[in-house]
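Hey, I was hoping to borrow your eyes for a little while. I've dropped the whole record in just underneath, so have a look:

——
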Amino acid sequence: MNGSPFQWNDPHTWPTFFIVWAIVAIAGWLAVPIWRWLKRRRVARWSTTAGIVESASLNLIKKRWILQTDEGAFSAEIRYSYSVGGKSEEGKYNRKFGTEEEASGFVRDLQGKPIEISYNANKPAISAVTEPAITNLLALRGPDPSDESISTVWVSRISPVLLRLLKPLVVLSTVGFALSLYELLAGNFFGKSLEPDALFVLLHLGVFAVWLPTMLVVKARFGTLKHRDFWKTLMRGTPAWVKYLFYVVIGYETVTSFVFFVKAFGSQPAATGAAAPPMLWFFADVWIVFYAAGFAILYSAMLSAAQAPRCTNGHLALRGASFCTLCGQPVMRSMRAH
């Protein structure tokens, strides 16, 4: 690196330690997906045979760190048997879940079901189960009457006023996210910035306007703000594109937060009376996370409220109920809100 100040759009000015850090981070991020892709490619060329699910159970995974033991995800385990050339073989399939509820729902009623097994023709004892085979296996069982994975019961705990405000809050979080994203992209790549004074105050206030109702929605869903595997559970039932958007924002925020400190270290003082552009970019990093999280949570709640069963008077009703517990009117079969 020469004596030139750090510029995000000029790799020649990037410090060596930043380049090394970026390479290691990207390699670590891609290693697992690449390995899984290669494994799927290898298994796809194996022979297949019919097998039987001998047992299906779940186990709590304990993640051991240096200073503490963190009880984390749950592992659903399927043990199966199959026969190749008259010789019986056994194997197992594992999948991780963020909550016990999801893991229990996955292993429900699987014992004794047929399952397609892929095995290495040269070493029949080595086997695997593909995702299409798991999909077919799960399709063999009937619906779970107690399944609450997409339940909207918790929506009834949200106040009627907040329910009516969900759509405006989703719009507000979208606008805040868009402005924060513009500030980050325009500032980092084009050296431009929105008017700092007014934007700084408005985006700050917007975060509180979005986040406080968001916490009320979270409290209604969980009954507490402390919950193991908080984000995995909260994102359950949320459209895939919303999840991906949130994860991309988190990844981008992690990288740009590091870049901010490098920029701020070599930046010149800003004119008095205005927020320094690097500082505004830093706050935009913070804003965009809150706005993205608020959008994901509020949008999910809005969809759940729209899909919740209601009686003819518009009251939220429990899924599967025939009559409203508040007014006694029949529950409409349509899952659309009116």
